[in-house]
Amino acid sequence: MQDYAQDKGYCIDFFKNFTDDDGIPKYMDMLQDIANRSRRVLQIELDDLALYCKTNHELLQFLASIEANTRRYLKLFAEAADVTLPDPTVPASEMAKDVFDVLLEQRQHNVSAQEMDVDGNPAPPQDQHQRLPAELTRRYEVLLIPRSDSGTLNMRAVDARHLGRLVSVRGIVTQVTDVKPMLTVATYLDDASGFEIYQEVTGRTFTPLQEVPDAVANMNNSKNGLQLQTSGSKFVRFQEAKLQELAIEVPEGATPRHMVVHLRGELTRHMKPGDAVTVSGIFLPEPFAGFRAMKAGLVTTTFMEAQHVHHNKQSYSETKLTNEDRAMLEAIPQQDIYHRLANSLAPEIFGHEDVKKALLLLMVGGVTRTLPDGMKLRGDMHICLMGDPGVAKSQLIKHIAHISPRAVYTTGKGSSGVGLTAAVQRDNVTGEMILEGGALVLADKGICCIDEFDKMEEGDRTAIHEVMEQQTVSIAKAGITTTLNTRTTVLAAANPAWGRYDTRRSPAENIALPAALLSRFDLMWLILDKIDSESDRNLAQHVVRVHKEGKAPKRDDGVELLSPDILRKYIAEAKTHNPYIPEDLTEYIAAVYAEMRADEAAAKVPHSYTTARTLLSILRLSQALAKLRWDDVVMQPDVDEALRLMRMSKISLYEDQDRVAAQDPISAIYNIIRNNAQANNKHTYTWAELQAMFMTSPHSMEQVRQALIEYRDVNVWSLEETQAGELTLLLGSDDIIA
């Protein structure tokens, strides 16, 4: 038979005698902080207890009993802590009294008075309902953290054998209720005698006391009813969460299972829907109540009483670089960090280096500005990958969802409008109508990955318009009118209208998305499957090596890839910077944007839809590049790289257009300059103006220089060279006349 009195002595000895590796009395320090009211939780690590038990073989059974009958031993640890609790080292004058102190002093005074009769002699022993429960006077809670080598269980493996035991399971949080007060000690008042009666509540349901206990009734010859005093009762914070089985743990052909988790006290508000967590707690049964009990009979439901919550993915705001991490990252040459970080994304996927650079900038994001009048300029970027089947679009966005601390992956055909935004449901605990956030709400301050974006119904796709620009969801359903935050990045993958991209048709016909939605994407990246013997051979070799080695092969250029953990830490540090656009870049960016608009107007078949949002996209991409340098100022190379990525996103179309037109680069450059001169009635172009003009074209500046020299040699144009070696182009009047 278990000797709980002896086990309580073991608990007291453990608190008093355990020291950590530095010889510090760990738990006595915790208890001292609790006595000084600077701590409210006593966390007992079973790793420490296992280390302590190694000194005495008799204690090994004690440790096993704790893991098998955890709830009973939680009470023993709390009683042992009450006994061991030292006196406060902080003066009483520095500890402000609260309502709890006033009630406790009055109750202790009443109890002392009740222990003496009228003549000052000891009164008969009190009834258990009259004594102050330890739970009422305790200002802290006790939690057990399981051993690190105990491992986690598959949610399907938790069964009747684990009832009452301390177990750990992994899962995704799908639903979290509001925090409500939960009664732990009920206080009743007897009007006739003025006595307070206490009832300790250990579950979610209890039967209130209706009559005065016999001991009090005999003293006052009264059998009056009791009045529940809510102001004198003790309540703790309570929250219920629903944990869903991980997708990798679900057997073939099965649906994910769920587990209900009860959170109390300081553990509340530690989980949000969408979090990937490992929850350790006590697996307990709970009988049905009310009419459901009549139908269920002996069948009970189960839940987990949480003791510890560990987030498997830390958010960027919680991720901190250690000195070792910072030293390692700072040792990387600055000119290589952009290239190295991009290649560390999905290294198993061959090529797509510029696409990976764009996705890296998407994870970093720009700077969100809130103006004095309340207007908000979003800093989160949106990217749509559109292309032929089999170019690894889905694999890329799944990898981003995997390494991002907060990401939600969904598909267009499997998502409805309310599934993306919010739905109204009935709360299982209170029965109230509540809003249940959809995928975009769950991805708040994260990334929402939507695959098969083109397969989505048009009515459901319109729900994304407000989310992508205003970053809110406005709800007016079932009497609930509110606005939810969706500060999320949208990463979408889609196929062209006819399955494969048809270069004979215009981009608008191929993309088949409304202009209002297209303009909200910072980058619409077209990935076309082109036939190229050398590229196809390299791709095949890469895929075979991945299958053979089971991992990404080493790169030929010797670039050492970074692990996802280091990548997350680097991005977390980059997100702490808020770069701004200096005044000297304003004119340059404005000229580039005006040139993009002019080129689109002059093009017979425009490749993109350029609006004022495109200008903001340039700023966001430039800010993300500055963040990657851990810099607070945007520089011109950042803007140039942002423009290059915008051009590369449509490079396949430029190549096709060049091939169809069969026009050599020299003639194409001549036509571009001549059309611009006619549109602007301009005779002179500096080299900087020419750079801005061709920033978004597929022609290099070396080709531009060659074209200028060729047309100078045939006396069509004139060139002047500055002292710095830069060329200035002078056009004749014939070039200006249309």
UniProtKB/TrEMBL annotation:
One of its GO terms (cellular component) is nucleus. Residues 337-543 form the MCM C-terminal AAA(+) ATPase domain. It comes from the Eukaryota. It catalyses: ATP + H2O = ADP + phosphate + H(+). Its main location: nucleus. It is found in: Nucleus. SMART domains: AAA, MCM. Its EC number is 3.6.4.12. It is an enzyme of class 3 (hydrolase). The keyword Transmembrane does not apply. Keywords: ATP-binding, Cell cycle, DNA replication, DNA-binding, Helicase, Hydrolase, Nucleotide-binding, Nucleus. It holds the Pfam family MCM_lid. Belongs to the MCM family. This is DNA replication licensing factor MCM7.
